[in-house]
Write a structure and sequence with these properties.
By secondary structure, the chain is an all-alpha fold. It has 2 domains: 96 residues, Endonuclease Iii, domain 2 (Orthogonal Bundle); 112 residues, Hypothetical protein, domain 2 (Endonuclease III, domain 1, Orthogonal Bundle), CATH 1.10.340.30. Helix content is 65%, strand content 0%. The longest helix has 19 residues. The two termini are 19 Å apart. The structure holds iron/sulfur cluster. The site of iron/sulfur cluster (SF4) has 14 residues, from helix 11 and helix 15.
């Protein structure tokens, strides 16, 4: 399966209404300009709505001015208090503190030192950070290399890849990433790679929902194993 130009136009028409507001985009741009801040934001976003992630992030930033030095010295309980809006805040507070300490001890608190390595070496180093898994590493790499090279696989992308029949239930992160990358006509997207990957993610989230997927209105149904086997 390959996304045709027509399908991409349809995705643009249907899913641009779910696109992030200018304010959210501006905030995200500011956060992504500092890989350490993006790392903390991504930890805070785990199993949390975007509204609550942003609230938790702002509160943490106001209290500690997010950087590896201040967070590694902060009391874990105080971090937890600052990110209460986000859910799972005790677990996340531990992760925030541990990853900050690790970066301070091993990289002088500078995540950009890892990101100067070539992409696959950087991925390996990111995965050594305490509490950091494939998805978080993917978000950081995508912010540097773009989704053409590092498409981010989260629960929505995993689900849609399985339903489309690109991978099986047991597929690893790497396999899903590889198979999903193959459906995009990257060479034709010219500067719109990240937008199209994000539109596809919006389709996965809003149409290929975990419960009651809206298959009848899905633009991918004729290529979808799940849909075709349910008919
Ligand atoms: S047809 Fe249904 S299962 Fe297949 S991608 Fe679309 S929403 Fe998901």
């Amino acid at each position: 399966m390959k996304l045709s130009e027509e399908k991409i136009r349809e995705m643009e028409k249907i899913y641009s209404r779910y696109w992030w507001s200018e304010e959210e985009e501006e905030e995200y741009r500011e956060i992504s300009s500092d890989p350490f801040k993006l790392l903390i934001f991504t930890i805070l976003s785990q199993n949390t709505s975007s509204v609550n992630t942003r609230r938790a992030y702002k509160s943490l930033n106001e209290r500690f001015n997010i950087n590896a030095l201040s967070l590694s010295k902060a009391d874990e309980h105080d971090i937890a208090e600052a990110i209460r809006h986000g859910g799972l805040y005790r677990v996340k507070a531990r992760k925030v503190k541990e990853v900050s300490k690790y970066l301070l001890e091993n990289y002088e608190g500078r995540l950009d030192k890892i990101l100067k390595m070539d992409m696959e070496k950087a991925r390996k180093e990111l995965l050594k950070l305490p509490g950091i898994g494939n998805k978080t590493a993917g978000v950081i790499l995508a912010s540097i290399y773009g989704q053409r090279k590092a498409i981010v696989i989260d629960t929505h992308m995993r689900r849609i890849a399985i339903r489309l029949g690109l991978v099986n239930e047991k597929a690893s992160y790497d396999e899903i990433e590889k198979k999903l990358k193959e459906i995009f006509p990257w060479e034709k997207l010219k500067g719109k790679e990240d937008r199209v990957a994000s539109l596809f993610w919006l389709l996965a989230k809003h149409t290929c929902r975990a419960i009651n997927p809206k298959c009848e209105e899905c633009i991918l149904k004729e290529d979808c194993r799940f849909y075709l086997t349910q008919k």
